[in-house]
Amino acid sequence: MSSLSIQLPGLNLKNPVMPASGCFGFGREFSQLYDLSGLGAIMIKATTPEPRFGNPTPRVAETPGGMLNAIGLQNPGLEKVFNEELPWLEQFDVPIMANIAGSTEDDYVKVAEQLSKAPNVHALELNISCPNVKTGGIAFGTDPEMAKALTRKVKEVSEVPVYVKLSPNVSDIVKIARAVEEGGADGLTMINTLLGMRIDLMTGQPILANKTGGLSGPSVKPVAIRMIYEVSQRVSIPIIGMGGIQSAEDVIEFFLAGASAAAVGTQNFVDPFICPKIIEELPEMLAKMGADHISELTGRSWKKNERLAYYRP
Amino acid sequence: MSSLSIQLPGLNLKNPVMPASGCFGFGREFSQLYDLSGLGAIMIKATTPEPRFGNPTPRVAETPGGMLNAIGLQNPGLEKVFNEELPWLEQFDVPIMANIAGSTEDDYVKVAEQLSKAPNVHALELNISCPNVKTGGIAFGTDPEMAKALTRKVKEVSEVPVYVKLSPNVSDIVKIARAVEEGGADGLTMINTLLGMRIDLMTGQPILANKTGGLSGPSVKPVAIRMIYEVSQRVSIPIIGMGGIQSAEDVIEFFLAGASAAAVGTQNFVDPFICPKIIEELPEMLAKMGADHISELTGRSWKKNERLAYYRP
Amino acid sequence: MIRQENCKIVSNRPIADNIFELVLEGELSAEMAQSGQFVHVKVADGFDPLLRRPISIASINDGSFTIIYRRQGKGTSLLADKSIGISVDVLGPLGNGFPADEAKPGQTAVLVGGGVGVPPMYELAKQLARKGVNVISIIGFQSSNAVFYEKELAEFGEVYVATVDGSYGRKGFVTDILDGLEGQADIVFACGPTPMLRAIENGAYAPKTYLSLEERMGCGIGACFACVCHTKDDPQGFSYKKVCSDGPVFQAGEVVI
Amino acid sequence: MIRQENCKIVSNRPIADNIFELVLEGELSAEMAQSGQFVHVKVADGFDPLLRRPISIASINDGSFTIIYRRQGKGTSLLADKSIGISVDVLGPLGNGFPADEAKPGQTAVLVGGGVGVPPMYELAKQLARKGVNVISIIGFQSSNAVFYEKELAEFGEVYVATVDGSYGRKGFVTDILDGLEGQADIVFACGPTPMLRAIENGAYAPKTYLSLEERMGCGIGACFACVCHTKDDPQGFSYKKVCSDGPVFQAGEVVI
Ligand SMILES: Cc1cc2nc3c(=O)[nH]c(=O)nc-3n(C[C@H](O)[C@H](O)[C@H](O)COP(=O)(O)OP(=O)(O)OC[C@H]3O[C@@H](n4cnc5c(N)ncnc54)[C@H](O)[C@@H]3O)c2cc1C
Ligand SMILES: Cc1cc2nc3c(=O)[nH]c(=O)nc-3n(C[C@H](O)[C@H](O)[C@H](O)COP(=O)(O)OP(=O)(O)OC[C@H]3O[C@@H](n4cnc5c(N)ncnc54)[C@H](O)[C@@H]3O)c2cc1C
Ligand SMILES: Cc1cc2nc3c(=O)[nH]c(=O)nc-3n(C[C@H](O)[C@H](O)[C@H](O)COP(=O)(O)O)c2cc1C
Ligand SMILES: Cc1cc2nc3c(=O)[nH]c(=O)nc-3n(C[C@H](O)[C@H](O)[C@H](O)COP(=O)(O)O)c2cc1C
Ligand code: FES
Ligand code: FES
Description:
The complex is a heterotetramer, with two copies of chain A and two copies of chain C.
Chain A: E1 6-8, E2 11-13, E3 17-19, H1 28-31, E4 42-47, E5 60-63, E6 66-69, H2 78-89, E7 96-100, H3 105-115, E8 121-127, H4 138-142, H5 144-157, E9 162-165, H6 173-182, E10 187-190, E11 194-197, E12 212-216, H7 221-232, E13 239-241, H8 248-257, E14 261-264, H9 267-270, H10 274-288
Parallel strand pairs in A: 3-14, 4-7, 7-8, 8-9, 9-10, 10-13, 13-14
Antiparallel strand pairs in A: 1-2, 5-6, 6-12, 11-12
Helix pairs in contact in A: 3-5, 5-6, 7-8, 8-10
Chain C: E1 3-16, E2 19-25, E3 38-42, E4 53-60, E5 64-70, H1 74-80, E6 87-94, E7 108-114, H2 119-131, E8 134-141, H3 150-154, E9 157-163, E10 170-171, H4 174-180, E11 187-191, H5 194-203, E12 208-212, E13 228-230, E14 240-242, E15 249-251
The structure holds flavin-adenine dinucleotide (2 copies), flavin mononucleotide (FMN) (2 copies) and FE2/S2 (inorganic) cluster (2 copies).
């Protein structure tokens, strides 16, 4: 057995590394660069019932150690994702996690119901944390009761396990996590982006046309690690961690904090080969750390009195 | 009149640049490096009624583009600050903003009452946002009602204007800001640190003895800018902005977002001469931007249809 | 095919005020076909700055290629500081460039470049001239000290220069010169600031016009939806093009600019 | 006085496995008085990495100074990559070093260094020997390929080497050698990993012992309270010392280590 294979609800992963939603489109572009079958899974771009154009440009801005985006959930809509993108992805031996979004509960339910029927969709990722749309999105992600109710509704219709993607823009992440667990979530993915802004000194105006955007990249990693550390001790469902991962070492840090798998977002733009690179490097790192299997590392930072084998990078 | 002088409640500032609380001690160390009278003001280290040792070490950890700290409000206590630190600071022609903290309302009231009587304390900064103490601190800063009540109590006893320092670890920063404004706050200072964590791969444990710590430095700047942009449009009291400032350009960005003055924290560690450097560079930058006075820039990003003179750095 | 390669710097020198010409050695030059394609450059290891910088290909050589950039913000300043022999992480070639084949031998192509929109015109002029197309280049700058590649473009045909302040060439904009060439162009190729591209589109100076767009980018390869624009036939709708992978060169009238 | 200066690299070379000796030219060398003081080094412009790195002064020369560091994480790796002629932003000298004056001419001082705790011992040995103090150095490393400065220290007195794996010198720890020198030391000076310092404190090998502590630092100048330790007389209370500005050298028994 490989030291990297992971079983999570609905997901039989060859390895715990997957591109994060919105940073990999529907895989077409990256498929020109490497074989997608080597990935643990793919989190596809958020899908809404109808096609969306998203926000005006500029949609991205660089920040110290990170970037802001305000794409605004641009996507070709449920029908096209179901009839074109997902069937195209079937050529690869890789489970798909379908990120679903909407403005109303009904939107989520509609997308969940249909996408969960696609043969290669092995799990849903409920995006209640998109900061870049006027209605829905993050509103569900900052109110525990709304989050719980939505999770329950989606669970009722979904034919595959449901993961809920949490927003870091909250006072108490544990409260939301526990609410969606009560709502029946099979797992959590965290974190989505932090709400941020950059102002251009040349114009005096925000760089993004949408003014605010979601902060991602290495700068948010400590926030992600903290939240996963807190949440993983208080829920009994697994967490797929993300937020600033740039390397195999970062993946390990997420596991130590409490994650059971890891997703890479922004770094795909910086280094389009980053996912296969990390997957290749992980086994050697595990060996250095004296771990037989990566799952041993999940939550090691809070499982007391178990210090790791001395490891020097 | 200088293009940099600013009048804020209680504060007659030569210029809008001041070291942020906790990053400058009580000024003694930096006074060996430059004349403190050149600063706009000094925000001194948080003071509690009794002396505090703070948290065990390690208390700091570096993160991508930032740092975590979990000092835990170490300070010599009210008596010593009042009888030794503040009198020592009187040799400099610079207004002091006294950062006050505590575990209970009574703690805050006690410190506020006495420190506001010190002749060189021209304003108080109510620290309801320290993430590194077990009781008080951030608890006040994430609950609008508690924040409002505390502000009111402190206002009753303070002989100088009261600024409230906001925590970014909240779902809705505007709600807290408006609550403390209703409580009678004369101004806001924002942002304090974001809660974060780093795990050491060598030990598998959090680097900080306190496990979590407050994230500061350039990586948090987009969050600070966004929050100031949001809050400044919804309150009518001035904001002293902070969070990741490294340069005169950053100070301008904070003004454009809505700040009326700016504080520099972490960068004092990276470049101990940063405050005087920024103060020196600002007038030339203003000239390039076609601004006669820095206060013209406050909130320019949301005061529509007023584009700045073309500016190229 | 898109490749990622550490390319060695062969030369990196200022050719005008804050304008640098950088020659990079790399096998990915063999993948480069069209001018107007671009490379995505990581100017520093680590995350300061984090994102790659898109820069047009100015010249495709045997085993190397040239890019020309303006020192502007952090990224291009770091690039300008790099010396010969150092390696730079390059992703490319990206996007679809100018379709040189649309100009037939004997026809007249007018190439319009504004500021750092000039560089792709050099490779294009080279390709067109090689095929026997009659090349006229019009290049515009702010001021005399910003002018570059006049001589280089002159190898392939007539060159007109405009400067905004009149300190060199003709005072005014490239469109002022275009106006004077009425009827001569069978095809126009242009790259430069958006207002210039709009004016050229509106001017309809030739039966066919191709424009190279600029947009802030994330991935540069079509995966992040950072750089989309509406198509002209559906300006408020859901149809879109990605500047990075469908463009950056579009035919006039194809997308909303 | 503390100064901030861009110091030019005179040399930067490996002297053992992952150990580098860096000589920097700078007027701040004139401010340096004691071994055991340190400098705070900004290893890169920008914020990657953000914080300065504390490194002990190994040798104070005329117009220059030497530091010795282990290539460990990001910061020291970047430092190791720098070549001669490049400038490095240095803040220093910081802290209070070893009080060489506590050793009187004719007395015997035992200097104990573990790993990258060895460097400050060189300047100290130089200062002590100059005054006529009898110097014995004991230096400890993991393994033979990590050993450095044995020869350099030998200029000033006897040198004993211990390696954990026994591949060089005596197998074991510096304290094993110290044990064997019973009664010879009038004063002990030590720098190295915390367990080593604790063992030396507990061993009470001489009437006076001075230890150089390590702690994660923010400012390095005493302003941020990152690096405090309890004092021994009040181990649970409010009294404290700052490693950066009160230390890093403390007398044994002064602070809790
Ligand atoms: C397809 C394409 C081709 C280009 N070709 C050239 C060229 O040949 N020569 C040249 O000098 N410039 C070219 N540019 C513009 C060039 O990408 C920017 O000048 C450069 O990215 C600025 O980086 P910086 O770090 O110096 O500036 P900063 O302002 O520090 O950059 C901050 C962020 O904004 C982005 N950004 C800033 N300005 C622009 C811009 N004008 N277009 C897109 N992104 C921007 C940067 O990429 C970065 O992500 C091209 C842009 C595109 C999209
Ligand atoms: C007073 C003092 C003197 C020192 N003298 C020397 C010396 O002469 N030679 C030498 O090789 N090392 C010395 N060190 C240790 C040295 O500071 C660290 O090895 C170095 O900071 C590691 O930086 P990095 O970027 O390579 O590692 P990283 O692990 O990437 O550093 C991350 C952060 O942790 C801090 N850090 C990591 N390890 C240490 C450590 N052991 N002590 C303090 N901070 C640490 C870094 O400063 C940085 O802020 C000294 C430390 C102190 C406090
Ligand atoms: C350009 C961009 C688009 C994104 N789109 C989505 C999305 O559609 N759905 C979603 O759940 N998250 C989206 N995200 C968030 C990422 O999936 C991820 O949670 C976040 O970026 C943090 O990870 P990172 O720091 O590795 O990028 C997007 C992020 C970026 C940068
Ligand atoms: C080491 C350290 C100690 C701090 N102590 C305090 C404090 O005592 N009171 C307080 O209100 N803020 C404290 N802060 C927060 C800063 O004042 C500031 O709000 C924050 O660091 C963001 O600014 P920066 O990014 O410029 O550092 C501290 C920050 C740091 C880094
Ligand atoms: S830059 Fe990512 S789609 Fe164009
Ligand atoms: S490092 Fe800041 S007080 Fe010592």
